[in-house]
Specification:
Helix content: 55-70%
Number of strands: 11
Strand content: 5-15%
Largest sheet: 5 strands, mixed
Number of domains: 5
Radius of gyration: 30 Å
C-alpha cells in the first residue's frame, strides 16, 4: 500500500493511485498535512499549527482540536508518518511522500524535467479553510513561490532545448511556461520564437492573439509593444529573433486591483473575481426591460407547473429524444455557455438522447439567419417534429447585476404546450453554473421519470466553476462544429487559461490540435485531461481515456476497449462509433472501421467529417470502390468533394489514367486540384506534366500532400529511368518537410517508411540514416508501437542500401507483419520485392509485385498503393527497372 499527498492542482491523499474520500478529504486535515509536508521534515510547534488552523479558538480548545486531528491522522496513516510530543509535530517525508517535497528536492538536485512534471497545477489550487486567514496567507505565499520556481525551471529547459537544436521540445517547454502566466510578455515572445523556429508562424501569431485578448479584456491594459512588434515581423515574414531583446518581463505590466467578490451562501466554491462590466448604458436599458419581461414569464410559468406531465408515452425503452433550442438573451455568449452546460448535463443523463445541432444550423442557413440569431418557438417546434423529438427545450438567459435570470420550458412538439418549467436566479458566476447543473439534473429526472439526484454536486457536467472558461469553451465548440477547427483553438486556449483544471477544454484542445498536426501541444493537453479525469462524468472519462491511449500512448487496441465500453453503456452515442472507427483503422480492420463510421453518420447526419473519410478510405483500403462511391454520393450535398474523391481514386484503382486526369481537372479545390493532377499525371507516366503540377503544389507547404507528392515523383523518376540524384533530392526534401512539422507518430511513420524506401532505391545511405535518427528522436525512448514498426522497415532499407539484399528482404518480411494508422504495407512489400530482385530471386519478387498490383495486400494508405501499382504497371510495359545499389 502506497500513500501519496498531492498538493499541486487539486489537493488530496491517494492510495495506490486512487484518491481517498471521506474523512481523508476534510479541509483542515489536508491543510495540516500540506503545511507539514512543505516543512520538508522540519519540526513545527503546536502553537504555530493552532494559530494557522484555529486562530479564533482559545488555547485550551485549540490544543484539543489539534490533538484530536493529529490522533486521527496517526491512526489513519500510521504512527511513524507523524511524530509528535507535547509541543511539536513532524511529518516524515519517507513515510508519507508528497509531490511538494519531491518537487523541491528535484529542483535542488537540478532534475528540472522531473520537477516540472510534478507541477500539475498551482499549489493547493482553489483550496480554502474557513476562519483560517493565516493559513490562506501562507498558501498564497507558497503558491507564488512554487509557481515562480516552476517558471524558472521551464525557462531553463526551454533555453537548453533551443541551444541543443531540439526545436519541438523547446516549443513544449515555452508553451508550458506561458500557461503559468499567459500575461507574461517575455515568455509569450519566447514561445512565439520557438513556434516560428519549427515553421509554425500561424501558431506564433495565434499565441499573440490570445495574449493580446487576455491583456485587453482581463487586465484592461495595452499589450506589450515588444510582442506587437514581433507580430508585425512575423507577418512580414522576417525573422522574429531580433525583436526578442525588446520584450520586457511581465512584471512591468500593471495589474488593476481585483474588484470586490460577491459570495452566495449556497455556493460550494468561492466565486472568482468579476471585473467591472463595460456594457454601454443602452445595453443595460434593454437588459432591464427584458428582466421585467422575464419576471412576467417566470410568473406565467409558475402558473403552468401543474401542466402536462413529462414522460408517459415518451419514455420509450430506447430513451427520450430531446432537442435543445437556442436560449434567448442580450448576452449571446452567456446564453451559449448556459446551453453548453445544460447540454453536458443531459448528455450524461441515462435515457436521454440529444439530437444533433445540425438541424438548427441548416434551418438557419435556409432562412438566411446568422448563426448568432436564435430560433423562435414555432421554428424550434417544427424542427423538433421533423427530428422526431419527444421534448423541445426553449428558454432565456438575462444578465442581472453579477448574476442572471434563467428560465427554461419543456415543450411538447406536437402541441407546442409547456409540459414543465424550470427557473433559477443565480447571483454570481459560481452560483450560475451550480444552478444550471441542478436544473439539468432536474430536467433529466423529469424527462426520464426517475427520482432526482439530490446529492450536492458543486459543478455541472462541464466540470468548471469558471464562467469565462465555460463561455470560451462553448465558443470553441461552436466554431469546431461549423468546421472551423483552426479558429476554435484560440477560444479553447482562453478557456484553459481561465481554468487550468478544465478537463474537457484540455481534451477538446488535444483533439483539435491533433487534426492540424500539432502533436506535442496535443499530447500536453490530452495528458492534462487524463490527469484530471477524476473530475469528469463517466462518459467523458471513457472518451478521454480512449483518445489518450490512441493519440498519446499509441495504443489503438486499448483505445478500442474504451470505445466499446462507451458503446455498451450508451448504444446510441455517435462518438462511440466515430472513436471505434479511428481505432479499427489503426488496427488494420478496415471493413469494421467503415461499418462503424457509417453507423456514426446514420445516427447523426451532421457527423460528416471525419466519418466520411473513415468510411471511404477504409473501403478503398480493401478495394471496395463501389461501396466508397455509394457513401460519397450519399453525402454529396454536404461534402461535394467526397464524391469527386471517390470517383478519382476509383479511376486510379481500375487503371483508367485518362479518366483520372479528366477528374483531376474538374475541381476548383486548391491544393486538392494540384495534388490530384500530380497523381494523375504520374500514373499516366507523364513526368513533365507531373513536375509542373508539383511546382504548383509546393507553395502549399503546410499540407501533407507536399511530402507525399515529392516521394511519388521520386519513385516515378526512378521507375522511368530518371537519374538517382533527382530521386535523392526528392527524398531529402520530404525528410526536411517532416523535420519541420510536429506530426503524430503514424504520420511520421508512414512518411519515414516511404522516404527510406526511395532513398534506399536511390542508394542514399545518408538519408536512410538521417530518417532513422529522426524517428528515434521523435520516439524519445518511449518505444511507441508505430515507431517500433517503422524502425523495422528502416532497418530493412538500411540493409538494402548497403547491398545486403538477402538481409533486407528478411527484415522487410518481418516489418510488414504489423499495422498502424494509414500504414502503407504495400511500400514494405515493394521494398522486399526490390531486395529479392536485386538478390536474384526474380520469381519471388514478381509474385510479391503481383500481390501489390492486384490489391491482395490490404493497404491502409490507398494513395501510396495507387502510386506503387502505377509504377509496377509502367515497369511491366518494358520501361526501365530499378537496378541494385551496387
Amino acid at each position: 500500500m502506497t500513500l501519496l499527498l498531492r498538493t499541486f492542482g487539486a489537493v488530496y491523499l491517494e492510495r495506490d493511485g486512487t484518491p481517498l474520500g471521506g474523512a481523508h478529504s476534510q479541509r483542515r486535515r489536508l491543510g495540516l498535512l500540506a503545511y507539514l509536508a512543505s516543512a520538508d521534515g522540519a519540526v513545527i510547534t503546536r502553537a504555530k499549527l493552532i494559530a494557522l488552523l484555529w486562530p479564533e479558538s482559545d488555547e485550551a480548545s485549540g490544543r484539543h482540536s489539534l490533538s484530536q486531528l493529529l490522533y486521527a491522522l496517526r491512526h489513519d496513516l500510521g504512527n511513524q508518518a507523524i511524530s509528535i510530543d507535547s509541543e511539536t509535530a513532524r511529518l516524515d517525508p519517507a513515510m508519507l511522500p508528497s509531490d511538494v517535497h519531491a518537487f523541491c528536492a528535484a529542483l535542488r538536485e537540478g532534475k528540472l524535467e522531473e520537477a516540472v512534471e510534478l507541477y500539475r497545477g498551482d499549489f493547493l489550487d482553489g483550496f480554502h479553510v474557513d476562519d483560517a486567514p493565516e493559513l490562506d496567507r501562507w498558501i498564497d505565499e507558497e503558491r507564488a513561490r512554487h509557481r515562480a520556481a516552476c517558471a524558472r525551471a521551464l525557462e531553463r529547459l526551454g533555453e537548453t532545448a533551443s541551444k541543443a537544436g531540439d526545436k519541438h521540445r523547446a516549443v513544449e517547454w515555452w508553451r508550458r511556461r506561458v500557461t503559468l502566466d499567459p500575461t507574461d510578455g517575455r515568455a509569450t515572445a519566447r514561445l512565439m520564437q520557438a513556434l516560428a523556429d519549427v515553421g509554425d508562424r500561424e501558431g506564433a501569431l495565434r499565441t499573440a492573439r490570445v495574449y493580446e485578448a487576455l491583456i485587453r479584456e482581463e487586465l484592461e491594459a495595452e499589450p506589450d509593444s515588444g510582442v506587437i512588434e514581433l507580430v508585425e515581423r512575423l507577418r512580414r515574414g522576417a525573422s522574429p529573433a531580433q525583436g526578442l531583446a525588446r520584450v520586457p518581463n511581465a512584471a512591468a505590466v500593471a495589474r488593476p486591483p481585483a474588484p470586490e467578490v460577491v459570495h452566495e451562501e449556497r455556493s460550494v466554491t468561492a466565486p472568482a473575481a468579476r471585473r467591472p462590466s463595460r456594457r454601454t448604458p443602452w445595453i443595460w436599458a434593454i437588459a432591464g426591460g427584458m428582466a421585467g419581461i422575464a419576471a412576467l414569464v417566470l410568473f406565467a410559468m409558475a402558473q403552468n407547473r401543474g401542466g402536462a406531465r413529462v414522460g408517459g408515452p415518451f419514455a420509450a425503452a430506447t430513451g427520450v429524444t430531446v432537442v435543445i433550442g437556442d436560449l434567448q438573451g442580450p448576452d449571446t455568449v452567456l446564453a451559449l455557455a448556459v446551453r453548453e452546460a445544460l447540454n453536458a448535463e443531459l448528455q450524461n443523463t441515462r435515457g436521454v438522447i440529444l439530437t444533433s445541432d445540425l438541424g438548427i444550423r441548416e434551418l438557419k442557413t435556409l432562412m438566411r439567419l446568422s448563426h448568432n440569431s436564435a430560433l423562435q418557438q414555432g421554428q424550434l417546434l417544427a424542427l423538433a417534429t421533423r427530428a422526431g423529438a419527444h421534448v423541445a427545450i426553449e428558454g432565456s438567459v438575462l444578465p442581472v447585476s453579477n448574476g442572471a435570470v434563467i428560465a427554461l420550458a419543456l415543450l411538447d412538439p406536437s402541441t407546442g404546450r409547456p409540459m414543465r418549467t424550470f427557473s433559477a436566479r443565480p447571483v454570481d458566476a459560481a452560483s450560475l453554473l451550480a444552478d444550471v447543473g441542478r436544473m439539468g439534473r432536474s430536467i433529466g429526472a423529469a424527462i426520464t421519470q426517475t427520482s432526482r439526484d439530490s446529492a450536492v454536486r458543486p459543478l455541472p457536467a462541464v466540470t468548471t466553476a469558471s464562467l469565462p472558461a465555460l463561455k470560451s469553451y462553448a465558443l470553441a465548440r461552436q466554431l469546431a462544429a461549423a468546421g472551423k477547427r483552426a479558429e476554435s483553438i484560440a477560444p479553447a486556449e482562453r478557456a484553459v487559461t481561465h481554468d487550468s483544471t478544465f478537463a474537457l477544454a484540455h481534451y477538446f484542445l488535444g483533439d483539435v490540435l491533433w487534426f492540424i498536426d500539432q502533436q506535442t501541444h496535443s499530447e500536453a493537453h490530452l495528458t492534462k485531461a487524463y490527469e484530471l479525469i477524476a473530475t469528469v462524468p463517466p462518459r467523458e472519462q471513457l472518451v478521454i481515456r480512449a483518445r489518450y491511449e490512441q493519440l498519446v500512448r499509441d495504443r489503438p487496441d486499448t483505445a478500442l476497449v474504451y470505445w466499446e465500453l462507451l458503446h455498451d453503456a450508451s448504444p446510441g452515442d455517435v462518438l462511440a462509433y466515430e472513436g471505434r472507427a479511428w481505432a479499427l483503422r489503426a488496427l488494420g480492420r478496415h471493413e469494421e472501421a467503415a461499418a462503424s463510421a457509417d453507423s456514426a453518420m446514420q445516427l447523426d447526419p451532421a457527423a460528416v467529417a471525419p466519418n466520411t473519410n473513415n468510411v471511404m478510405y477504409s473501403l478503398l483500403g480493401v478495394g471496395d470502390t463501389l461501396g466508397a462511391m455509394a457513401v460519397s454520393q450519399r453525402v454529396a450535398a454536404r461534402n461535394p468533394d467526397a464524391a469527386l474523391e471517390a470517383r478519382f481514386y476509383t479511376a486510379l484503382f481500375r487503371g483508367d489514367t485518362a479518366g483520372s486526369v479528366r477528374l483531376a481537372h474538374s475541381t476548383e479545390g486548391i491544393p486538392h486540384r494540384h495534388f490530384r493532377q500530380h497523381e494523375a499525371y504520374l500514373t499516366a507516366g507523364n513526368l513533365t506534366a507531373a513536375r509542373i503540377a508539383l511546382d504548383s503544389l509546393l507553395p502549399h507547404d503546410r499540407m501533407a500532400y507536399v511530402p507525399n507528392a515529392l516521394l511519388s515523383q521520386g519513385l516515378m523518376e526512378l521507375t522511368l529511368g530518371g537519374d538517382r540524384g533527382a530521386a535523392r533530392r526528392y527524398a531529402q526534401q520530404a525528410l526536411d518537410w517532416v523535420r519541420r512539422r510536429d506530426l503524430s507518430p503514424p504520420a511520421v511513420g508512414r512518411l519515414a517508411e516511404r522516404i527510406a524506401h526511395l532513398a534506399a532505391l536511390a542508394g542514399d545511405d545518408a538519408t536512410v540514416r538521417a530518417t532513422t535518427a529522426l524517428v528515434r528522436e521523435r520516439d524519445r525512448g518511449r518505444q511507441l508501437r508505430t515507431y517500433v514498426l517503422t524502425l523495422r522497415t528502416l532497418d530493412a532499407a538500411s540493409a538494402f542500401v548497403r547491398g545486403q539484399y538477402g538481409e533486407a528482404a528478411r527484415r522487410a518480411e518481418i516489418a510488414r507483419h504489423g499495422v498502424y494508422f494509414s500504414r502503407s504495407l504495400a511500400t514494405i512489400v515493394r521494398l522486399e520485392a526490390d531486395a529479392r530482385r536485386a538478390a536474384g530471386e526474380i520469381a519471388i519478387a514478381d509474385s510479391l509485385d503481383r500481390l501489390v498490383e492486384t490489391h491482395q495486400i490490404v493497404d491502409g494508405n490507398f494513395q501510396t498503393w495507387a502510386m506503387l501499382k502505377a509504377a509496377g504497371a509502367l515497369r511491366a510495359r518494358g520501361r526501365p527497372q530499378i537496378a541494385s545499389t551496387r
